[in-house]
DNA sequence: CAGCTGGAAATAGGC
DNA sequence: TTGCCTATTTCCAGC
């Protein structure tokens, strides 16, 4: 079981569009193996030699991986990528790609592979159908009437965050300023924070935190806010609804396939910048190809000096916009010519002008360094509104706080660690529009931090000091929730806040190197659910003890997680490439054994036991009843869409689902220069509108020359470091030795739990933080593949044990024995009732049917991507596409299955007794 | 008393 | 259009 699949695929997303409640689903993967013998991701007893395991229902055979594949793999876009360099989702991307590049020579094991999806925390934004549409950078953020504002107005507008951290108005541009200092008394916001000009002009606050209800509407006339009880914001043009978001076709007049705020369609200025000039430009939307661009305007403030550079010509990446001086179409970016005074002397931090944009994907490690989250945050953190007091810093599962450490750093100077709130969806990581990091101060906070606003995103910076072993306890970062209406009202903002409540803590370091090239590393935490409700209602799977089994099912799978209930149901489903649900089956949950943190599930039989290829399915956990889920939903083909897509629907249908969520939008546009700058090893057709976002997810280490000039001047300025993740390997996660594993699963029966997806991996880490003795950094980082042996040099520089832990994979037991339980089952054993499951026949889509199917607008881009991917894939390896099976977890308000396919006769479905 | 928490009412939007 | 349901946002009380 060493292959990996991208559960964040097209069909899943399409299906999601048909199933609103699936926004709260956390999906996981499972793979069915056919009865016939074939490869199965094998044991990897030899850490240095990946194997494939021939698996039949009764026997297994292991043999080495074909060398041919390795060679082939070298041609992949990840040829220079070391999977271990990438963290979290990025690794999954590599795995996905690799998985799909399996050469034909290696037959795929028809097996079931259970893999926790990155959708594990899929929720809200990430699960929205057009989530991939928001991959474009967010160089500017606008508000109605103030289109030139380069910030998220609520953040700038609302100082109502906790006084402990106060609003980030003043702090943002004056890190060392008192959090409560009046804008009028401190640095002049008019100078330091142009966006503040609008807000504060005529209404300077004496204390940003004194009036939770002080609003933009009051101050800046944006009209989005009013004294409490505040009326819901209304948009002159009509507020987007969640449904509209899910289905852009519902939006009158919205035809753009790129509703991203900064897509070319919506912002020609931005779009024009996506040229081959360089990655920076592409990402930032700054079209400058002018080396040595000189700031056109210098603004002297009380504490800092900013260079104002026209967006279209500057090479600056971060900044505030000068609202007053520039029209909307020509926003300015403010680049501090003088680095703000750090809290720590000699703090090694990169000048904003040279730092990569927050939207940029960065690796978590290079050969030399690794930025690692030693302790992950809790999966839930109730964010506070501006009208509320702070809800404190994000905590760790153990009760402490997240810990981040930079490995491999030998310098003597502290390094600035940046923290911001990023998206938790499957698209490229970027600052979250609806959440901001919130600086926490107080006697309980041990970590100094200061704030700044980088291109509209609040960023905390704390020092990583050698004396602390370059480790920082993140006890100063809370999460502020911005009102959806305010954000959605921004011009160009296409994301909706509804059900978009998952975030990640993103950590970044910029390591100054003597050679003149600095290294930027970034690592994102596990997803954090920020809503109040979900903390108690959403079931989450943190661990699954098996990821594949025979198509015959019947094996017991133990899910470890949270918020399971007696009503918890585990649903297996399969979708077609176009998102149509092909099969759905509720697994039998052993109510007697199950606990709030553990579910014992009997894997249902796959509907087609005669498959000869492994099939991936989804499964998810749902608490409570579930509404009817349409098995197939078709829509009339939108001519406009079809025309603009440039290919027929049938083409879409055959596309690989992989990387659907990774539409890089503008970033990977052939004109944006990303590929040339970051993934030169891979060539794409310039005619294709998009490229596979995996290549940005798999971004190489960013090495750049100090000094803003070069950043946008040429593609070569930003170049991949020589240390790129190994592309040859699918990767999986070894969750630790038996002694380190959690719970019964870690007992002798399952000494080595292998988790296959980043999602699962992430969750595991959250749990491991409590149970695994530190340091266990590589439990998370040990990513290797079934198809390829770990390579020297790919290990974590700071964790030599990484390699050693690679191959303790064990075959999944066909039957998992009941483990000793510390908790009581939900209830006493009761006669299970047979669930009525209509709709026995798996959905089969004929070609004609497929032609009638309309892929939602937001999915077309990915279709393009997949198309490209498929071309590349075939070109590189000729690997045949796979069928994926994902799994999900649904929220408590999930739908019921009125069209639930009946289980095979030999495998009746059971449900919890009410 | 400030900050933090948990809970829940009020509100808005979706169906 | 209405009612129900869910998600969001605001408010309150306790620690």
Summary tags:
9-stranded mixed sheet, disordered C terminus, 7-stranded antiparallel sheet, single chain, Immunoglobulin-like, DNA-binding, globular, 914 residues, alpha+beta, disordered N terminus, 17% helix
The H-level CATH homologous superfamily of the domain at 365-529, spelled out, is Rel homology domain (RHD), DNA-binding domain
Q: Count the beta strands.
A: 33
Count of DSSP H/I helices: 23
- What's the average pLDDT? 48
Biggest sheet, open or closed, and with what strands and sense? 9 strands, mixed
* Terminal-residue CA separation: 36 Å
Which word captures the global form? globular
CATH topology of the domain at 365-529: Immunoglobulin-like
Helix/strand-derived category reads alpha+beta
Radius of gyration: 26 Å
CATH class of the domain at 365-529: Mainly Beta
The percentage of residues in β strands lies in 15-25%
Low-confidence segments, ≥5 residues, pLDDT <50? 1-25, 37-239, 251-346, 625-824, 827-914
Q: Which CATH-level-2 architecture of the domain at 365-529?
A: Sandwich
List the helices and strands and how they pair.
Layout: H1 10-18, E1 28-33, E2 38-41, E3 51-55, E4 60-64, H2 67-73, H3 89-100, H4 153-157, H5 168-173, H6 189-192, H7 194-200, H8 216-219, H9 242-246, H10 268-271, H11 279-284, E5 297-300, E6 305-310, E7 332-336, E8 370-375, E9 384-385, E10 403-407, E11 415-423, E12 435-439, E13 450-454, E14 457-464, E15 471-473, E16 477-481, H12 484-488, E17 502-511, E18 517-529, H13 534-537, E19 540-544, E20 548-550, E21 556-562, E22 569-575, E23 581-589, E24 598-602, E25 615-622, H14 639-645, H15 649-653, H16 674-678, H17 694-697, E26 702-705, H18 708-713, E27 719-720, E28 732-734, E29 754-755, H19 758-771, H20 777-781, E30 783-784, H21 801-804, E31 833-834, H22 847-852, H23 857-876, E32 887-890, E33 910-911
Parallel strand pairs: 1-20, 9-16, 25-32
Antiparallel strand pairs: 1-25, 2-3, 3-4, 5-6, 6-7, 8-10, 10-15, 11-14, 11-17, 12-16, 13-14, 17-18, 18-26, 19-21, 21-24, 22-23, 22-25, 23-24, 26-27, 28-29, 28-30, 31-33
This protein binds a DNA duplex (15 and 15 nucleotides) through strand 9.
């Amino acid at each position: 079981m060493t292959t990996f699949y991208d559960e964040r695929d097209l069909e899943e997303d399409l299906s999601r569009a048909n199933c609103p409640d699936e926004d709260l689903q956390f999906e996981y993967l499972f793979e069915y193996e056919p009865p016939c013998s074939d490869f199965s991701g094998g044991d990897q007893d030899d850490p240095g030699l990946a194997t494939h395991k021939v698996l039949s229902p009764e026997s297994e055979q292991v043999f080495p991986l074909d060398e041919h594949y390795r060679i082939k793999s070298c041609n992949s876009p990840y040829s220079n990528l070391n999977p271990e360099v990438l963290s979290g989702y990025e690794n999954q991307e590599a795995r996905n790609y690799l998985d799909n590049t399996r050469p034909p020579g290696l037959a795929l094991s028809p097996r079931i592979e259970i893999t926790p999806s990155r959708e594990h925390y899929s929720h809200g934004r990430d699960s929205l159908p057009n989530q991939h549409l928001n991959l474009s950078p967010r160089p500017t953020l606008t508000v109605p009437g103030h289109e030139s504002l380069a910030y998220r107005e609520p953040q700038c507008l609302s100082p109502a965050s906790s006084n402990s951290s106060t609003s980030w108005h003043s702090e943002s541009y004056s890190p060392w300023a008192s959090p409560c200092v009046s804008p009028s008394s401190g640095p002049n916001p008019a100078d330091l924070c142009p966006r503040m000009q609008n807000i504060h002009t005529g209404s300077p606050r004496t204390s940003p935190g004194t009036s939770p209800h002080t609003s933009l509407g009051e101050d800046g006339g944006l009209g989005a806010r009013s004294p409490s009880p505040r009326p819901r914001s209304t948009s002159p043009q009509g507020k987007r609804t969640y449904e509209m978001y899910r289905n852009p076709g519902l939006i009158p007049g919205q035809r753009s396939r790129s509703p991203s705020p900064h897509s070319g369609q919506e912002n020609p200025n931005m779009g024009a910048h996506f040229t081959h000039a360089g990655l920076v430009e592409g990402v930032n939307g700054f079209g400058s190809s002018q080396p040595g661009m000189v700031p056109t305007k210098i603004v002297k403030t009380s504490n800092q000096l900013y260079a104002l550079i026209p967006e279209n010509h500057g090479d600056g990446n971060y900044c505030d916009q000068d609202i007053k001086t520039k029209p909307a179409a020509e926003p300015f970016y403010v680049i501090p010519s003088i680095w703000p005074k750090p809290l720590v002397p000699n703090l090694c931090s990169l000048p904003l002008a040279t730092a990569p944009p927050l939207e940029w994907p960065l690796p978590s490690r290079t050969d030399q360094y690794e930025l690692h989250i030693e302790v992950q945050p809790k999966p839930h953190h109730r964010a506070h509104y501006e009208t509320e007091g702070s809800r404190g810093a994000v905590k760790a599962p153990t009760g402490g706080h997240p810990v981040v450490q930079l490995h491999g750093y030998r310098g003597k100077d502290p390094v600035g660690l940046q923290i911001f709130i990023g998206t938790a969806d499957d698209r490229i990581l970027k600052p979250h529009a609806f959440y901001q990091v919130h600086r926490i101060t107080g006697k309980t906070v041990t970590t100094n931090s200061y704030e700044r606003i980088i291109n509209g995103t609040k960023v905390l910076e704390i020092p990583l000091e050698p004396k602390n072993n370059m480790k920082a306890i993140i006890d100063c970062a809370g999460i502020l929730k911005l009102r959806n209406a305010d954000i959605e009202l921004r011009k160009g903002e296409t994301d909706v806040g509804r059900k978009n409540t998952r975030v990640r803590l993103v950590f970044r370091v910029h390591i100054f190197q003597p050679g003149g090239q600095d290294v930027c590393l970034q690592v994102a935490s596990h997803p954090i659910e920020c809503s109040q409700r979900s903390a108690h209602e959403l079931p989450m799977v943190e661990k699954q003890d098996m990821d594949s089994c025979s198509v015959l099912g019947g094996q017991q799978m133990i899910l470890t997680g949270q918020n399971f209930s007696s009503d918890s149901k585990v649903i297996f489903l399969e979708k077609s490439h176009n998102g149509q649900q092909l099969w759905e089956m509720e697994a039998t949950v052993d109510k007697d054994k199950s606990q709030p943190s553990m579910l014992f599930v009997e894997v249902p039989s796959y509907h087609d036991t005669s498959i000869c290829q492994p099939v991936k399915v989804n499964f998810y956990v749902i608490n409570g009843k579930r509404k009817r889920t349409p098995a197939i939903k078709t829509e009339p083909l939108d001519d406009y869409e079809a025309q603009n897509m440039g290919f027929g629907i049938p083409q879409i249908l055959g596309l690989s689902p992989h990387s659907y969520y990774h539409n890089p939008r503008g970033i990977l546009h052939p004109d944006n220069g990303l590929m040339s700058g970051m993934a030169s090893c891979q060539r794409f057709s310039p005619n294709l509108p998009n490229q596979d976002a995996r290549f940005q997810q798999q971004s190489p280490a960013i090495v750049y020359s100090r000094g803003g000039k070069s950043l946008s001047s040429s593609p070569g300025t930003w170049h991949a470091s020589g240390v790129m993740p190994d592309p040859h390997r699918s990767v999986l996660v070894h969750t630790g030795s038996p002694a380190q594993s959690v719970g019964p699963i870690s007992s002798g029966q399952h000494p080595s739990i292998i988790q296959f997806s980043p999602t699962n991996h992430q969750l595991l880490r959250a749990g491991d933080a409590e149970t695994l003795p530190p340091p266990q950094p590589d439990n998370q980082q040990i990513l290797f593949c079934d198809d390829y042996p770990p390579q020297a040099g790919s290990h974590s520089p700071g964790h030599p044990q990484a390699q050693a832990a690679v191959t303790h994979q064990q075959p999944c037991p066909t039957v998992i024995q009941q483990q000793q339980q510390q908790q009581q089952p939900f209830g006493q054993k009761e006669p299970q009732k047979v669930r009525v499951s209509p709709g026995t026949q798996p959905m089969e889509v004929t070609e004609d049917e497929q032609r009638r199917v309309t892929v939602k607008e937001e999915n077309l881009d990915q279709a393009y991507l997949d198309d490209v991917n498929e071309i590349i894939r075939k070109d590189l390896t000729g690997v045949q596409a796979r069928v994926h099976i994902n799994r999900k977890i649904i929220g408590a308000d999930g739908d019921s299955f009125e069209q639930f396919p009946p289980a095979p006769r030999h495998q009746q479905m059971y449900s919890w007794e009410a």
